[in-house]
Amino acid sequence: MGTEGAGIRLIAGRYRLEERIGRGGMGVVWRASDQLLGRQVAVKELLSDDSLPDEDARRRRDRSFREARAVCQLRHPHIIVVHDVVEQDERPYLVMELIDGGSLADRIARQGPVDAAEAARVGIALLSALHTAHEAGVLHRDIKPANVLIESGTDRVVLTDFGIAQVAGATTLTETGSFVGSPEYTAPERMSGLRTGPESDLWSLGALLCTALSGESPFRRDSLGGILHAVVADEIRPPAEAEPLLPVVRGLLERDPDRRLGAADAEQMLRTYLETGRTPVAPGAPGAAAGGHGSGRIHRIGGNRAPKAPAPRNPAPYTPTQRDIPRGGLLPAGPAESSPVRSSPRGVLIAALLVAALAGAGVSAAALLAHRDGGGGGAPGGTATSPATRTGTGGKGGTEGTSPGPAKTGTRPAPTSTSGTPRPTGTGSHTAPSGYRTAREPAGFSLAVPEDFTRSPQGERVFYLSPGETFRLGIKVGVPQPGGPEGVMNRSAAGGATTNPGYRDGRVVRTTHAGHPAALWEFTWDGFSTPEGPRHTFDLCWEEGGLLYDVWVSAPVGKVREAREYFDVAVDTFSVTGV
């Protein structure tokens, strides 16, 4: 049953929907009347995903009920009260208290930023609410001004929309592997997929306080790539308006979750500010000497534990459709090797987050840092399907030429069987066909590319682009990853919807390349802009000689046959030459 224009409906024989008052990514919110108790309530209708198979839809619905019921157990004056969870036409509905008032985002939009005292009051309420939720094993995961309500008449602060909350011991309301939340308010460890815990909600609250004080998040940028880079790697610069609460803001926006300020400590520091007009320094910061404000009682999360090692030694998996930061020793060092982010133990931790982000559940920040790798600014930045803007220095390649072999004719049909099973790749000649040239790369390989494609090196990847970038051929060399090529591609496919807008029809098939284990990932997506239009991608990953090779081609959906030819020629002529 649809929601748009549905009119008055009775849900579960009790709740009469009267007026739609809100809509978000997870569902529609209605003003409703509880016919049994004679009170006004808010009813959130959780939208279903019609693209899911029936069994997957059922499992998702069951998770929704299980987790919503867990949220129902939360009792706190600053947490929205969930009265009931019901089902109508196999669709979950959350029945909540109706708050007469707008959101913090609405207030900021109408009246401008708040002063430090009001920000502290809001922060205290939310910290207390989060402490209760975290003690119950519930993570909110989408703390932002739009999810904070301010009740009219009382100014009561209410944290709402636990629609993507995570309950300890359960999968999330969204599909496993999908990214949820708002990038400007998402903690770097969540962005990189390293971990998700109470600390992540606290980072989001730090960003929220900055927004309340200045009118915008300190991580707001013009593109998604810029936002992710700001969260994971840029210098964090709280707004000038945050100066009175700076120790709290900086403590909450600590990138290392084990060093981040805890909820109880941050709440106490804000209370001290309201009482004295001064905010005590965070523990461990300069000036936090014995006898100072809050000394002896304020502790960071993990304060009684030894600091964790900053980065794992095992190589982190990467996502083939995203760019990487350079890994020393594999390819010649680029500009990123001299970046200040690697110049200290603190920088090592950030670099570890960037590397881990390559396998994260969300869009990888490291994959989008075009300017760190010498590429352009592109939005959202360089990926296998959308390389960043070129600097203008790319030519036809480092050392290239046309092989002297005999000319070949025409376009080949896509080498797949009628069942859709790909044939083993890499079984052809290394000679460049007519209309192609052999590109020899300093990373130790060569392949045939169309004669009019332009070389565009971007960090650890190299792209060959057709005029107008209609076709994009990309290559990357890396180190073997857990699960082999199939594991790499399956992890990439699991995050396909977050790395490629409108991702659909994706499949990963085990195959071989020149006798080596390989996996082919094929999918369709919407492109990064309306003018660009829908695109289709072929991506082959294989292991050879102790390295992991990845070759992909992206093209408009109307040019799939040509794209498949370019792809087949690239992988069939691919040859490891040695550095």
TrEMBL record:
<dbReference type="InterPro" id="IPR017441">
    <property type="entry name" value="Protein_kinase_ATP_BS"/>
</dbReference>
<keyword id="KW-0418">Kinase</keyword>
<dbReference type="InterPro" id="IPR008271">
    <property type="entry name" value="Ser/Thr_kinase_AS"/>
</dbReference>
<dbReference type="InterPro" id="IPR000719">
    <property type="entry name" value="Prot_kinase_dom"/>
</dbReference>
<protein>
    <recommendedName>
        <fullName>non-specific serine/threonine protein kinase</fullName>
        <ecNumber>2.7.11.1</ecNumber>
    </recommendedName>
</protein>
<keyword id="KW-0723">Serine/threonine-protein kinase</keyword>
<dbReference type="GO" id="GO:0004674">
    <property type="term" value="F:protein serine/threonine kinase activity"/>
</dbReference>
<keyword id="KW-0808">Transferase</keyword>
<dbReference type="GO" id="GO:0005524">
    <property type="term" value="F:ATP binding"/>
</dbReference>
<feature type="compositionally biased region" description="Low complexity">
    <location>
        <begin position="401"/>
        <end position="429"/>
    </location>
</feature>
<feature type="domain" description="Protein kinase">
    <location>
        <begin position="15"/>
        <end position="274"/>
    </location>
</feature>
<feature type="compositionally biased region" description="Pro residues">
    <location>
        <begin position="309"/>
        <end position="318"/>
    </location>
</feature>
<feature type="region of interest" description="Disordered">
    <location>
        <begin position="277"/>
        <end position="343"/>
    </location>
</feature>
<feature type="region of interest" description="Disordered">
    <location>
        <begin position="377"/>
        <end position="438"/>
    </location>
</feature>
<keyword id="KW-0547">Nucleotide-binding</keyword>
<keyword id="KW-0067">ATP-binding</keyword>
<feature type="binding site">
    <location>
        <position position="44"/>
    </location>
    <ligand>
        <name>ATP</name>
    </ligand>
</feature>
<dbReference type="Pfam" id="PF00069">
    <property type="entry name" value="Pkinase"/>
</dbReference>
<dbReference type="InterPro" id="IPR011009">
    <property type="entry name" value="Kinase-like_dom_sf"/>
</dbReference>
<feature type="compositionally biased region" description="Low complexity">
    <location>
        <begin position="382"/>
        <end position="391"/>
    </location>
</feature>
